[in-house]
Amino acid sequence: MIVLWTDGLIYLLVLASAGLVCYLSRQQHMRRPLKKIAANPVAMASLTLLLCFALIGLADSIHFQAGDSRGNEAVSLLDVACDTMRKHGEKTYSAPFAAHGYAKESIPAPDGSTRWDYPRLQYGGAHLADPETEWVGDVFDKTFSGFSRGAGLMLMVLLLAWGDQHERRRALWRTSSSKAVWATLFLVVSGCYTLFSLSAYYHVLGTDKVGEDVFYQALKSIRTGLVIGSLTTLVMLPLAIVFGIMAGFFKGWVDDLIQFIYTTLNSIPSVLLIAASILMVQVYMANHPENFNSLLVRADMRLLFLCLILGVTSWTGLCRLLRAETLKLREMEYVLAAQALGVKPAMILFRHILPNVMHIVLIAVVLDFSSLVLAEAVLSYINIGVDPTTHSWGNMINSARLEMAREPVVWWSLAAAFAFMFALVLAANLFADSVRDAFDPRRANV
Amino acid sequence: MMSYVIRRILYALPLLLAVNVLTFVLFFVVNSPDDMARMQLGQKRVTEQAIQNWKHQHGYDLPLLWNAEQTGGKQLSETIFYQKSINLFLFDFGLSDSGRNIGSDIRQRMWPSLALALPSLIVGLSVNITLALLVVLFRNTYVELGSSVLLVMLMSVSSLFYIIGGQFLIGKLLKLVPISGYDDGWAAIKFLILPVIISVVAGIGSGVRWYRSLFLEEVERDYVRTARAKGLSETQVLFKHVLKNAMIPILTGVVVVLPLLFMGSLIMESFFSIPGLGSYTIDAINRQDFSIVRAMVFLGSVLYIAGLLLTDISYTLVDPRVRLS
């Protein structure tokens, strides 16, 4: 078992969010918004999708030493699950479900002569004797059998759940949001099952320039997107919360100083700040090669640092919101009462102010998530994002940009990155909307 | 008013100083002048003498922040930081590390940036506001439901896909406009159409949602009810009364970004190879040209602070209830 830095932080994050959910569900005043979210079918469906993504990301965060390799190569649980995809590398591009290569080359015939034709792929469709005639039927067969097996599995689970005679749980069953959750789960599980079973025979989403399976790349990129979206908030939150409520509560020179800090940070174009910091990390790594002995550790450190620097550039917005809210709260009667009773300022901040700004923090975190996932793609495009060896949607788009100019067009990398990113960001946006609607007191009566 | 503006400008000075120190430290904490010299002169086979010459030529042969060999005020002034910073405050950007005049480069590259950014802003703003008003007009109908679903979907697509998709569809398949490039004078228009369209489309999702929430807040107000009670049609109410009153947050939101338009957009410019300040900055980052990056950071922060100041002033202009103090 190898624990990378981001891995460790992800486990920490999972623990923290589990704790937060436990804490929230026990708070009386938080139950109403939570129930409101639970009653919203769109929110629950997108939450389910997000959790599926998170599950894949978590499976990709458990690294251990590869059994069959002698080097210090680490593989994750996801790599093991996708072993066939990972090992089924072709020579170069191939279209989705293709049995033949992307470009013509000279193929030696058994009698010594060569002919100029599309070569058969090494793995994709290799079980077919005559691709021209069998291909359509075979793809249809395999898709159907994969889907029916996945769907059958889900149906079995559904039947088991349906057979549950407990009255309270049966009432839960009839709500529209639970139907939405089951529908999403059904689609995701059977879809995944189909794709996985198909990818043993074909490259479902084609292969890229060096022949790597695009579906595998897109799956691996999920972790990068999630890490950027979630670890950044882990960096951002302490800064924003501590500075924001301190500035609002103490006023005076503390407020001036904190405002000075965040105006300074805000006035530097964030891209430049990120570029300078990434440059710095690169130089540091080049000068200290002994600390970063493997490629994975290097890429991981860069990812972590990117989260760090994104967090540093993005805490100012939330800090400003929290400051404004605290300025309002500190004039409230219950804060004045606490002051009159002689409660220490630190205690007032912790017991009276912090719980009452929590809804702003929660809304900001879910709203930021999707924009951070999108930002990663843009940063990778200008080469100041994640390491080029890390699988990420940004890197996929970056390389796909040049492939669009080829003839015939290599569209599958771009399409895969688009589909995965769109699904994640759309789910995050829909969920964020409902969280905002539920927690924002101005919309509470609706 | 005047004293407020002067106070704000004086307050900007420490901010700019802090920005300068921060960028300086960020760059030099790992990147020593020796490394920069090697980078500029070519990595290998550089003699010690050549490095010294380059450093002397570009003024990098002084201590970074504190010169212990000098006395008095010279301890501060005889340093790289002081020498390179003091001119920035006078907007004299000096020579870049590769020997070009940064000031004239900026003056020259400012116009293409502006030619892209200004139409994008204006067209984007009018499209967004019109669409948002239409969505509000059809509120509580299926039109609103459908459009809000569509907006979330538009918002969830990365801007890179808009650019690549737009270039592929309009530039390559339909061959309506050139894919990328730039030209002087009016000939530039045909190169600018595509980026402007794409940046408008890419902004629709979040923009319309933002304006929609502004208008929805405004629709609940008393004056709107009065206007309806007078017998005005819903269209008149929205486009005359609501729009005028919502202008205050819209205007102040726009004023903040106005000065920053000069900086251009990093992504759009480098995708469409428009020789503006955005692509200039990216090139400088890639070449590790410290002088240019610092000049651009400085310029960016000056413009940002100017934007904040303009916002405050525009508040008092459009809303007489606001008093500056």
UniProtKB/TrEMBL annotation, chain A:
Residue ranges annotated for the ABC transmembrane type-1 domain, each copy included: 222-432
Localization per Swiss-Prot or TrEMBL: Cell membrane
Membrane topology recorded in Swiss-Prot or TrEMBL: Multi-pass membrane protein
Principal localisation: membrane
Keywords linked to the UniProt accession: Cell membrane, Membrane, Peptide transport, Protein transport, Transmembrane, Transmembrane helix, Transport
Chain segments annotated as transmembrane: 6-25, 37-59, 144-162, 182-204, 224-248, 260-283, 303-322, 360-382, 409-432
Pfam families: BPD_transp_1
Similarity comment text for this entry: Belongs to the binding-protein-dependent transport system permease family.
Stated name of the protein: ABC transporter permease
Organism for this UniProt entry: Methylomonas subterranea
Automatic annotation (TrEMBL), chain B:
Topology of the protein relative to the lipid bilayer: Multi-pass membrane protein
Ranges of residues in domain ABC transmembrane type-1: 110-314
Principal cellular location given in the protein's record: membrane
SUPFAM superfamilies linked to this entry: MetI-like (SSF161098)
PROSITE patterns documented for this protein: ABC_TM1
Transmembrane stretches, start-end: 9-30, 114-137, 149-171, 191-211, 248-272, 292-318
Source domain of life: Bacteria
Alphabetized UniProt keyword annotations: Cell membrane, Membrane, Transmembrane, Transmembrane helix, Transport
Compartment(s) of residence: Cell membrane
Similarity annotation: Belongs to the binding-protein-dependent transport system permease family.
Official protein name in the record: ABC transporter permease
Organism: Methylomonas subterranea
Organism taxonomic ancestry: Bacteria, Pseudomonadati, Pseudomonadota, Gammaproteobacteria, Methylococcales
